[in-house]
Write a structure and sequence with these properties.
- By secondary structure, the protein is α+β, with helices and mostly antiparallel strands.
- The longest helix has 16 residues, at 44-59.
- Strand 1 (95-102) and strand 2 form a beta hairpin.
- It starts with 43 loop residues before the first helix and ends in a 9-residue tail after the last helix.
- Helices cover 19% and strands 10% of the residues.
- The chain has helices at 44-59, 73-79, 132-135, and strands at residues 95-102, 108-114.
- A two-stranded antiparallel ribbon has the order 1-2.
- It comes from Anisakis simplex.
Length: 144
Amino acid sequence: MKFQLHRRTFYDDHCGVDEALDEPGVTGDGLVVRGRHWILLDTPDHSSKMHRPLAFELYHSPVLSFAPLNMPIEQYRASYNTLYSGLTRSLPDHLNIATLEQWTGKSLLLRLEHIYQNNEDTTLSQPVTVDVEVLFSHSLRLYS
């Protein structure tokens, strides 16, 4: 298996561009490429069950943020709700919330996406129906 992320050559290596690939970058030391690569090995029938959830986990991970705490943690926990879920139940494994954003005033735009293609998986590619009116913990008026 050949895996090439980035290459730098000081002369034409006759691999396609007919010129040297010398990009010095800002510092002059050459471009530095960093990343993480995941290789999943499975049968074609089962690979989508692995790579779809993992892709969402890797690319849509939670954003952690911190602020100074000006009171004891016990007082903070007693004064504020530290756990919240806007959903009354989990979404099916083959659905993802693609968009949930404020639209106008008190209106929200919600887009759900089915993350599996037709015939990609015998179970997870099947159509799914979700009752959005009971999905959220707060009452919503729906406009379609």
